[in-house]
Amino acid sequence: MTDNAQATAVPGWVLKFMDAIDTLEFWTAGDGVRLLRGEATIARKREPDQAVRAPFMHIFYLDQEEPVRIRTLRITAGPLQTDAVM
User: Fold this and answer.
1) Predicted TM-score (pTM) of this structure
2) What is the CATH number of the domain that holds 27?
């Protein structure tokens, strides 16, 4: 395998799309694969002061056509104190 993932600067469109999260790392790999690691702050609408931080990893694949769009998105999250937000 000649394409190895490498750390890169987070593109502006990713930051705009993900403005509700804290981006910790953004990686690119071959064939349009992108990895985004971060944390999201989540709270119930009726209890906004009782928020929890949820770590997550977004793995997405970009189309090869213009305009570039996300073809597939996979999200992993956790661990999470679910009783605080459910």
Assistant:
1) 0.58
2) 3.10.450.50
